[in-house]
Amino acid sequence: MDRLLNIVAGLSILLIGMVFFAIRRAHIRVEYSVSWLSAALVMLILSQWQWALLQFAQFLGVNNAPFALLLIILSLFVIVFFRFSVIISDLKDANIALTQKLAIIEYQLQHVQEKHPPTDPS
Amino acid sequence: MIRPTEPEALMILIPAYNEGGSIRRVVNEARKLVPGVPILVIDDCSMDDTRTEAMTAGADVISVPYHLGLGGCVQAGYRYAYDAGFHYVIRIDGDGQHDPKFIPVLFDKLRESRVQMVIGSRYLNGKVPATSFARGVGIWFFRQVLRLILDKEVHDPTSGFVGVSRQALEVFARSFPLEYPEIEALVVLQRRQFRFQEVPVVMRPRMAGQSTITAVRSFYYVLHVLLGVVVNILKYEGKRRKV
Questions:
Q1: Which H, E and C letters describe A56-108, residue by residue?
Q2: pLDDT tens per residue across span B110-157
Q3: Which of A30, A107, B5, B20 is in Cβ range 3.0-4.6 Å of B48 for a Cys bridge?
């Protein structure tokens, strides 16, 4: 059990490191890194604080603490993925609306330019 | 730039993606059969000469900068028509399946009946059109689903030959299903307590190109549209951001 918990702790630290690195390189926005950091912290705490993990396992009615930990990790990731699906959907909606507006404005601009061709400043 | 020239003006909308082989004939036919009615082609980032062909035929063309899919493309046209002040929009496909000689039929029905949408139905003229087995099953299935939801028979729920009034335009300019929009659009209308009617039309074979709905995609189509219908029934519009 200890080995599994240590591996989870290692992965959590790796995830936190990756997230901080990505923030520093501006590959991820701070507001979107919070979900990953929260998930990694919960994983780290539960893997190193066995009493809390056992309480959780008991609460879930699971006899096997590592199984409870995996269940919690899975749930956390499902929540994070769902949150990102919502964000992506919002972005796609905005992207489509912007694309449509851009295409319409481009069409209108072409007609304005045809009517009033730009004059040569020289 | 097309603008309405009369109070209850009509615009013809043709969404097109890689319809270079047929779009010129479709536009020419429409111009001949309904002269004076502005025609707007929305080129969905085609890889062929759709844009040039449509412009050569005398249509106005809005080109979207990346491929939006049918729904996004149609919505761009609805958005333009609504903002420009058109009162009615009739949509026909760029592949030539929708015979423009039926445009006046749809237009008259829209004006006379005062419904918000008129659908050109290939199943109301007494002839059974040739469709693939998968499509036939899909149409039958959605007829049953829509009968339950709308409490009304829709003979041709997948028809893209539709006319909408300004009230429906206002709704669709803001919110329109992205993929396979026809069936979901009916549910959107029903939620607004808008009305629709069907008129008999004859549909022709495609002039060029191939349908994007293959046998495998038919299955995806049914699942996607069914889910879309359920989502549209459950959708809460109140808090949606206005883009």
A1: HHHHHCCCCHHHHHHHHHHHHHHHHHHHHHHHHHHHHHHHHHHHHHHHHHHHH
A2: 999 989 999 999 888 777 666 777 777 878 888 888 888 888 888 888
A3: B20
User: Which residues on neighbouring strands pair with residue B89, listed in sequence order?
Assistant: B11, B164
Tell me which residue of B178, B34, B3, B164 sits closest to B90, measured CA to CA.
B164
Q: Determine the pLDDT at residue B128.
A: 67
Quote the pTM value: 0.83
DSSP B4: -
Would you state the pLDDT for residue B149?
A: 87
Q: Is B84 on the interface with A (CB under 8 A)?
A: no
- pLDDT-based confidence at residue B66 (cuts at 50, 70, 90): very high
Q: What is the pLDDT of residues A68-102, one digit of tens each?
A: 888 888 998 999 999 999 999 999 999 999 999 99
- Mean pLDDT, rounded, of chain B: 88
* Structure tokens that stand for B42 in this block: 């929305």
> Domain segments of chain B: what residues?
10-234
Do residue B62 and residue A103 have CB atoms under 8 angstroms apart? yes
Q: Do A94 and B66 touch (CB under 8 A)?
A: no
Options 3.40.50.920, 3.40.50.720, 3.90.550.10, 3.30.360.10; CATH for B10-234 is 3.90.550.10
Q: CA angle, corner B93, sides to B117 and B38, nearest 5? A: 75
A107 contacts in chain B (CB < 8 Å): 1, 60-63, 80
CA-based nearest distance A71→chain B, Å: 29
Longest dimension (CA), chain A: 85
The token pair that represents B242 in the structure block: 């206005």
Burial label for B179, CB within 10 Å (0-12, 13-18, 19+), is middle
A105 touches chain B (CB under 8 A): no
Q: How many CA atoms lie within 13 A of B84 on its CB side?
A: 27
CA distance A47 to chain B (A): 39
- The pLDDT-based confidence of B6 (bands split at 50, 70, 90) is confident
